[in-house]
Amino acid sequence: MVTETPAPFALHTATFLQAQAEPIFFCREIIGVEPWDYQLKILHDLGLESQVAAHTGHGIGKTSLGSWALLWFIFTRNESKVITTAPTWRQVADLLWSEVHKWARKMDLEKMGWTFPYKLLDTRLEVEQEWYAVGESTDEPEKIEGYHAPSIMYITDESKAIPDKIFDSMAGGMTSAESKHLMLSTPGASQGKFYRVCTNKAEKGDWKIHHVDAEDVAVSTNGVQVSKKWIENRKKVWGPSSGIYQLRVKGLFVDMVDDRFCPASWVERAMSNVVKSSKKAKKIKAVDPARYGPDLTVVGMREGMKVLPMLKADNTSVPKTEQIVYDEFLEHRPSEVIIDIGGGLGAGIYDHLLRRSKIRDHLKAFDGANAANDPDMYMNRRAESYWNLRTLLGEGDMQLPYDESIEGQLTGMRYEYRAHRGNTVIKMESKEDMRKRGMISPNEADTLMMLFSDELLQEDAPGIGIWV
To answer: Is the pTM higher than 0.85?
Structure first.
């Protein structure tokens, strides 16, 4: 349904009517932007359909598309309302609305006869008291439920992580004379409204669904936003068949059950590799301490990409483990000694070793529960460091000692994708969950992971390394 021409228009009625009916025309003539091929298809359907959803790869300009849709609707519908939301307030304010501000500055509304003043605030664009666009948080569904207007549009950015109750709150507004809903998101977990709309025939109903592969966008746009180099790097880091590549690049939903952390072929290759020793190779030691019970204290060392056989000990007290680490340091003189302090036991060992002047400046503390350097990708530092290890194993340049414990842990450990703060992130299986499946604690794998985490650690003070 196309509403009547808004009151401010005295001239250029034909131009206005075309802009009102065709969002592509509005983008080209009023905003002054040439949409990419996939954006043209979505904009075309948005002009004709009531409900449009797109599951896309990462970084393909979908948020810009959402801002164009907002500007098109609010400036071509009399007393209209546009309500935007996203999983977090940061995504509402810093992503979609920053794009609204960017493109609003480029508009030439006079081309279609617009002479009416409007106010553009941080997350609100207001023409009149009952004619506006606004950004709302998802933690107050009652606010979203209260919107009514002759013409109303909902824009949900990163829809994968928006709770069903928010979509339920929009149902009342969708009964307006003219109502539209645009859902944009990279895929996430196999649950929720966005997933069902995009994949479930029964729930699709009147929704027009678009799938956008970042590989295709990179080719069709000559890599303007999604570079081929970035995609090739993701293939290298994640592997083209990995679930995270299918999500973030291909824009495909994948089965979100646990997945094996590492192919057995990668571990077998590493255990058959021969890396020549070099005096210039960086020496790193890592310690995963355990006290009593079935778990082992493990001390590992690498020289460059060559991992040496691990030292393992059971029933080790704090003083005993401290002495083992110190003796190993004096014998091999590594540049760094990384100690897992996450379980509490390692913190005592770390603190005691700080009192020893010869090793003090070489100590680094690791706590896998701390925030990742890239929180949009990883649940915590443990997940980030394990994925770093996985990448290195996939590259094939690492030499591992033959150790059935390492092999079993790396190939038996699982990871999953979790919704976290508005993103789909990688989470490693916990030690507790591994034990429930009958697996032993991954002490050797954790030590190996820490051995290659040194580049992710940052210096807090000279000689004392901690996660930040």
So the answer is: no
